[in-house]
Amino acid sequence: MLGRYSHVLFDLDGTIFNTEYAYTSALYDVLKAERPDTEETYESLTRFMGSTAEDTRIELNLPFEDTKRLSDAWIERVKLYEDSIKPFDGIMAVIRYLHEHGIKLGIVTSRAKTYENVLGEIASPLPSVLKPYFTYSISASDVDNPKPAPDSILKYMEITGAKREEILFIGDTLSDIECAHSAGVDFGLAVWGSRIKRSIMCAHYFMNPWDIIKVIFTHDDMNYQWYRWAKEIQAIGQIGLTYCTNVFDIERFERLREISCEIISTMTETPFEKVKDVICMDKGYITPKIDTRAAVFNEKGQILLVKESKNGLWSLPGGWCDEAESIISNTLKEVREEAGMLVKPVKFVGMIDKSKWNKSSQPFHILASFTVCLEGEGEFTPNSETLERRFFSVEEVSDEMLRLGTTTTEQIRMCSEAFNSKNWVPIID
């Protein structure tokens, strides 16, 4: 895989940490005590997530001479809500994965170092849980003009030598967006923590932290451009044959399908007839194929893999969704056939576009579903598809042992995170 970005910058509050309830509740308590007749509500005050204390004071028209007293009162109220401050589901696993794969990580935050002295970890610009993964944290105290000004990102670029095109900044507020745009870097919206209600232009929209992985890493598509062209030619030919009635046009569309087969046959050194049997088996309007995969976990949190007969590589049990089968029923059927196990489905992980996650030799556009299942009964017998079944800890699984066309370490970690998450949001490409 090639890194699309080599530097990823994260906002803290509302992006990595779910601090909205604590920070906004504390602000509401303080404001209500100062102005019992205020028309501000919890909902209206959420607009200050990502703002500095000074900007908040000014917009709420609080007197300058009361700044310290009000700040101290806010700090005391935040401490009452400290237990609600936690990382969002999935974000720490994604951060670890990016770090392990050589992506340089930084923090750009509106937090100020002055609050760290009294609030500790929950106000730190670089909390201890993030220190193993982040080298630099640029806080509001480190620049003359904090977000939405670009100074924080520009300072990171000055320190690291990173170029604009190498940087992706991920945040949740309009302040974050303005900061990224002013600095000239790409921005990804952390939808899971954002309160933005209007349409905005971003380079990326992340519904779930795991969406970040497929944007950061891309396969070397240029080496396979011929393959993409061949699939497009095949699709044009198949769709044309579906609707065309003119005998001469039918011949042209049939020839397009033959050309597609010839390209793939030549480039892969696969017999033409074999390629034709695979590509030309579909009729009618061409649509993506559905691949169903089961992430089966045991009581130890280990994941089930099966060793494939044709290549000796490991994979999550699964396969094409058959006619008249649903995603779940087909997933259960595949586990039964390949692993000899009756399992219980408990959580839908998501539906992904395999062209973004896997390097596949299949001449189709494929969507893959993943479902978390619990270990069940059943004896395994080697068969025409699989030689062995075995539970692995997530940490011991590597790309080298996997059939990457169907299963990658990113997908296994994603399924593990879903299994361990109480509030998993399915990923939909």
TrEMBL record:
Residues 287-414 form the Nudix hydrolase domain. It comes from the Bacteria. Transmembrane segments: none annotated. Pfam families: HAD_2, NUDIX, Nudix_N. One of its GO terms (cellular component) is cytosol. Coiled coil: none annotated. GO terms for molecular function: phosphoglycolate phosphatase activity. Gene3D superfamilies: 6.10.250.1120, HAD superfamily/HAD-like, Nucleoside Triphosphate Pyrophosphohydrolase, Putative phosphatase, domain 2. One of its GO terms (biological process) is DNA repair. This is Haloacid dehalogenase superfamily, subfamily IA, variant 1 with third motif having Dx(3-4)D or Dx(3-4)E.
